[in-house]
Amino acid sequence: MIAVRDFVPADRTPMLAMSRRYESVADMLARVNAFIHEQDLDVVNIETLLLPVNTDATRFDDSTQLDLGLFEVGAKRQQVVRLWYRKKD
């Protein structure tokens, strides 16, 4: 049976920081690789998605985004790593 898991960048913002800071894609991929190894999985596919922040990834709705050329107005986005896998028999 095929399953899916999304990995979202961890919030690395120090206390009293003026802006949010998130883990790098390399660090996020290290977490993905650790999960694959720990769970002994067969990887079907790995993809990166650009999704609106704080939304349900199963109900993607990009209607709040407006591209004005030099900048975009609307929901902020984050890069998510999606892992499709199956358990080894």
Structure characterization notes:
- The chain is α+β, with helices and mostly antiparallel strands.
- Helices cover 17% and strands 37% of the residues.
- The chain is built from one helix and five strands, in the order βαββββ.
- The protein has a three-stranded antiparallel sheet, covered by helices on one side. Strands 3-4 form a two-stranded antiparallel sheet.
- A hairpin with a 4-residue loop joins strand 3 (66-67) and strand 4 (72-73).
- The protein is flat and about 50 Å long.
- The protein starts with a strand and ends with a strand.
- The model has no long low-confidence stretch (mean pLDDT 81).
What attributes characterize this protein structure?
single chain, two-stranded antiparallel ribbon, alpha+beta, three-stranded antiparallel sheet, 89 residues, 1 helix
